[in-house]
Amino acid sequence: MAKILIVDDERSIRRTLKDILEFEKYKVDEAADGVECLVKVQKNKYDVIIMDIKMPKMDGLEALERINILAPDTPVVMISGHGTIETAVEAVKKGAFDYIAKPPDLNRMLITIRNAMDKSTLITETKVLKRRVAKSKTQEIVGKSTEITKIKETIDRVAPTEARVLITGPNGTGKELVARWIHEKSNRAKGQIIEVNCAAIPSELIESELFGHEKGAFTSAVKQRIGKFEQANGGTLFLDEIGDMSLSAQAKVLRALQENKITRVGGDKEIKVDVRVVAATNKNLRNEIDNKKFREDLYHRLAVIIIPVPSLNDRRSDIPLLTDHFISAICGEYGVSKKKITKGALKSLGNQNWTGNIRELRNVVERLIILSDKEITEKDVESYVTPSSSSNQSLSDLLRKYKNLPDLQAFIKTKFEEFKNT
Questions:
Q1: CA–CA gap between residue 238 and residue 280 (Å, rounded)
Q2: Which residue in 19, 40, 239, 286 is a FRET match for 335, CA 20 to 30 A apart?
Q3: Beta strands in 301-421 (DSSP E)
Q4: Are 182 and 236 in contact (CB under 8 A)?
Q5: Separation in Å, CA 202 to CA 209, 217, 280, 281
């Protein structure tokens, strides 16, 4: 149910509008002035705000400016009994969705509310689609260190071939990104790259996930399922964290690689597949082989080319480039101007222990963008980024400063809104 806030110092008008809108199945809140309105906007999310211009304590135009900071995507419809064309123009210039003179024409009011909600929905959908498009594009591999330069050169040599590739390295180093670039630069780029996280799928379901199943193959198999091998036909299959795959599934993957054929679970028909397999792991597969947890014959099938991806601690010279890249990307996602970072802040970031690697750095940069003021300083890094051993202390310091978790959340929200409007 859509939620509407009516802001007017005249109780009779609020009551009349509320009765009409509730009859139209809207949920309605009331506020008697601009100050009360802002309090409610901070606590609740509204689909539309209907606000009078002339009010005590804080008038509608001033409240409108504050709402544009607190809830920039919420449409505000201004109403007034003392309005002129100049007032209407000023309200629209300051971000109002529309202006309606008092007493309002109820049919026009309802149409305006409906149009305002449609606009709000479109804004939300556009933001979601923009993020999806940004994420769907293969990001560049950022860095000029010797290790990254070697990886880029290896990708250029290996991608056009059909050789299978094993990518190794700690979590968060960008193994998936390497796999995507191998696909993008291959002759299979027009096909799909299908990803399977072997660690996230229970061992009893991995075979169905990879090879599919026939209807009735097991209790919950109510219809036929196409597996990842078939989905990736003509493209690339990326087996992430392959070191966590069960031995029984490993045997079937080995057979699929040897014969380029698969059989669905519960079926007996062999299906030809044309798939290039790229695998990744954060484990030492040689040790897993010694411990009888990984098949040596499968290892040799997968590891035609081995690409080791270094940890961030082993390529610290790339931290300034990565930080700048993430600042540009994150500010672009939020639709704000790029935030500056000082040399002292970059130096401080370079001295951190990056146990979470590139993934951790990106999260830290996003945190700094939201919580810092006009630019990211060394003091910001000291306040919001600490070595993992003292992270609990940093959180405790913030909680002491802001008394409790709701206060801390309000502080973060305020900082985020300030950042969005810089």
A1: 8
A2: 40
A3: 305-308, 340-341, 375-376
A4: yes
A5: 10, 17, 18, 17
Q: Up-side HSE of residue 373: CA atoms within 13 Å toward CB? A: 4
Paired tokens of 97: 């969705």
Could you tell me the two tokens for 302?
């997968």
**Would you state the pLDDT for residue 388?**
44
Structure tokens at 226: 């196409």
Question: Residue 229's closest CA among 254, 253, 211?
Answer: 211
Residue 215 sits at φ, ψ, to 5 deg, of -60, 130
Give the angle subtended at the CA of 176 by the CAs of 174 and 180, to the nearest 5°.
120
8 A C-beta contact, residue 219 and residue 261:
no
The sheet that has 76-80: what strands, in order across it? 27-31, 3-7, 48-52, 76-80, 98-101
Q: Which residue from 249, 139, 261, 235 is spatially nearest to 199, judged by alpha carbons? A: 249
End-to-end CA distance of the chain: 33
Cα distance between residue 98 and residue 209, in whole Å: 52
Task: Give the DSSP H/E element, type plus range, for residue 417.
Answer: helix 405-420
Six-digit token string for 292:
């009888």
Q: What is the pLDDT of residues 320-340, one digit of tens each?
A: 999 999 999 999 888 788 999
Residue 15: both structure tokens together: 């009551």
pLDDT at 84 > cutoff 80: no
Residue 164: both structure tokens together: 């299978």
Show the tokens assigned to 176: 């998936």
Q: Identify the structural domains of the chain with CATH numbers, from first to last.
A: 3-135 (3.40.50.2300), 146-310 (3.40.50.300), 313-420 (1.10.8.60)
pLDDT band of 54, cuts 50, 70, 90: confident
Contact of 6 with 27, CB cutoff 8 Å: no
What is the per-residue pLDDT for 392? 42
* CA–centroid distance for 49 within its chain: 29
Please state, for a pLDDT cut of 70, what percent of the chain lies above it: 88
Displacement of CA 238 from its chain's centroid (Å): 21
Helices (H), 59-105: 60-70, 85-93
Instruction: Give dist(CA 359, CA 308) in Å, integer.
Output: 17
Give the integer Cα–Cα distance in Å for 401 and 262: 60
Distance CA 176, CA 165 (A): 12
**What are φ and ψ of residue 8, in 5° steps?**
-160, 140
